[in-house]
């Protein structure tokens, strides 16, 4: 039997992998290869946290393949030249791979395809990581959507759940030697990431387990529980989805089997719409490729962002703003590589609106520190909060972080977890220690400006400045 290269990127799984399944169905012996080429991602080279996940995900995939008798061939360098080298070494007669959607990678993949085809080698490409290709859903006029609700209404009407692609029962060992995962140098030299792995198990098995946990527990009540940061009310599948350890189709099939009472159908529907937002983000990135770095709403190119203050930005990054819900979120991010969805919106609103810093400052920090850093989701999420994206929250809608904390963490349990220096404050002051009487602070062992910082800005002052800048953008 002839060999075929199966080029794995962000489809790091054996189950429901259309490129792998089709190569075998076409009668080829699959040669599974991974080429590490971060330099080909332009200005968005993967950040430190996602590199640590990639290290562990590749190790897990390597073990899964070895259990079936095969091996994952790892290379590093320029994708095209490494693929050509491996094709020559294995005499592979075809190339199979799943699509990526970042504009610079789409161009790279087209070049690879063209070069292989020129040499008479067939190339087959697949959708492995989305419910729809980003170009499949269009308005009646044939244009891309900029508003989520009609996009998802149209997409949902067209959605077809496909049969799962079977995983191989065994894989041959082609004998080609590759690099070790360690040789890629993905792990940081310090132990910053050591605390991540109490909560996460990268790899296909970890993704499957996380999905089962969600379907057995958190999906019941998801619509409300997902907003409460002191509990696991979300699926926490985002890093697994980003690296393709699980597919949206697998998730869709599994939740179809969840049995909930009629009242629980709203929870399932809401979770499906969150998958829809992921699809929408890729739709936008494909059709508006500059949106990773530029405002979708071009009017905001003239917005009066504040002059970047390195010290102020550092205090936001390190969770030292003096606003407890913001600080708790930023510390959760630093210590776990993840942040609760509701809190992501709160900290983003604080940076872009109260501090009036350009959303790219926040997007870059998230990119470096989130395990689930994903260019489409990250860019659109930040633009949504900043008010300059598609279907965005209006700029004048400014989250009050104190009210948000009191609403979604009423007893302060989330704050106590990540800001332990505030743990002894009563619930009525834990979200606003700057309003607590001195006697209350002293009794809780809190010294503002000492054990816990004073606010970097007054919330009313920040809001007023933001609204004034927005009024200027609109010509008063």
Structural overview:
- This protein has 476 residues and is mostly helical.
- The chain is 46% helix and 5% strand.
- It has helices spanning 18-25, 48-67, 79-90, 103-118, 148-158, 204-218, 222-225, 238-242, 248-256, 265-287, 310-317, 324-336, 341-354, 359-369, 375-386, 401-408, 413-418, 427-430, 438-443, 459-473, and strands at 3-8, 29-36, 73-76, 95-98, 123-126.
- It is globular, with a radius of gyration of 24 Å.
The largest pleated sheet is described as: 5 strands, parallel
Instruction: Specify the structural class.
Output: mainly alpha
Helix segment tally = 20
Shape: globular
Provide the fold topology.
Elements: E1 3-8, H1 18-25, E2 29-36, H2 48-67, E3 73-76, H3 79-90, E4 95-98, H4 103-118, E5 123-126, H5 148-158, H6 204-218, H7 222-225, H8 238-242, H9 248-256, H10 265-287, H11 310-317, H12 324-336, H13 341-354, H14 359-369, H15 375-386, H16 401-408, H17 413-418, H18 427-430, H19 438-443, H20 459-473
Parallel strand pairs: 1-2, 1-4, 2-3, 4-5
Which descriptors apply to this entry?
mainly alpha; five-stranded parallel sheet; 46% helix; 20 helices; 476 residues
Give a short summary of the structure.
It contains 20 helices and five strands. With 476 residues, the chain is mainly alpha-helical.
């Amino acid at each position: 039997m002839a060999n075929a290269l199966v080029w794995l990127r962000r489809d790091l799984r054996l189950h429901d992998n259309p490129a792998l399944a089709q190569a075998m169905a076409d009668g080829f012996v699959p040669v599974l290869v991974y080429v590490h080429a971060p330099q080909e991602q332009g200005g968005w080279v993967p950040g430190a946290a996602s590199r640590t996940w990639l290290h562990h995900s590749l190790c897990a995939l390597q073990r899964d393949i070895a259990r079936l008798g095969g091996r994952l061939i790892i290379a590093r360098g320029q994708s095209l030249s490494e693929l050509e080298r491996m094709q020559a070494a294995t005499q592979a007669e075809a190339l199979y791979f799943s699509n990526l959607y970042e504009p610079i990678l789409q161009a790279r993949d087209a070049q690879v395809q063209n070069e292989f085809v020129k040499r008479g080698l067939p190339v087959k490409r697949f959708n492995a990581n989305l419910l729809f290709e980003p170009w499949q859903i269009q308005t009646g006029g044939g244009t891309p959507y900029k508003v989520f609700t009609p996009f998802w209404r149209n997409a949902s009407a067209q959605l077809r759940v496909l049969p799962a692609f079977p995983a191989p029962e065994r894989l041959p060992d082609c004998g080609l030697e590759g690099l070790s995962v360690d040789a890629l140098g993905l792990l940081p030299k310090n132990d910053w990431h050591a605390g991540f792995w109490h909560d996460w198990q990268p790899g296909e098995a970890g993704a499957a387990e996380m999905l089962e946990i969600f379907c057995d527990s958190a999906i019941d009540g998801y619509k409300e529980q997902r907003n409460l940061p002191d509990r696991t009310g979300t699926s926490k599948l985002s890093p697994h989805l980003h690296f393709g350890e699980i597919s949206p189709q697998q998730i869709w099939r599994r939740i179809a089997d969840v049995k909930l009472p009629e009242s629980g159908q709203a929870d399932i529907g809401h979770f499906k719409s969150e998958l829809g937002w992921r699809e929408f983000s890729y739709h936008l990135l494909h059709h508006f490729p500059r949106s990773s770095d530029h405002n979708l709403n071009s009017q905001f190119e003239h917005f009066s962002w504040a002059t970047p203050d390195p010290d102020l930005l550092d205090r936001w990054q390190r969770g030292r703003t003096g606003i407890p819900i913001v600080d708790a979120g930023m510390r959760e991010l630093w210590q776990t590589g993840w942040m609760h969805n509701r809190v992501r919106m709160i900290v983003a609103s604080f940076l872009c609106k109260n501090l009036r810093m350009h959303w790219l400052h926040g997007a870059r920090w998230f990119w470096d520190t989130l395990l689930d850093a994903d260019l489409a989701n990250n860019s659109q999420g930040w633009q949504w909060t900043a008010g300059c994206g598609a279907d965005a929250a209006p700029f004048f809608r400014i989250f009050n972080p104190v009210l948000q904390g009191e609403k979604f963490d009423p007893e302060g349990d989330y704050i106590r977890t990540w800001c332990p220096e505030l743990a002894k404050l009563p619930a009525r002051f834990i979200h606003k220690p700057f309003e607590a009487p001195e006697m209350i602070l002293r009794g809780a062992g809190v010294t503002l400006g000492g054990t816990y910082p004073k606010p970097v800005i007054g919330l009313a002052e920040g809001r007023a400045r933001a609204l004034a800048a927005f009024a200027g953008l609109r010509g008063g």
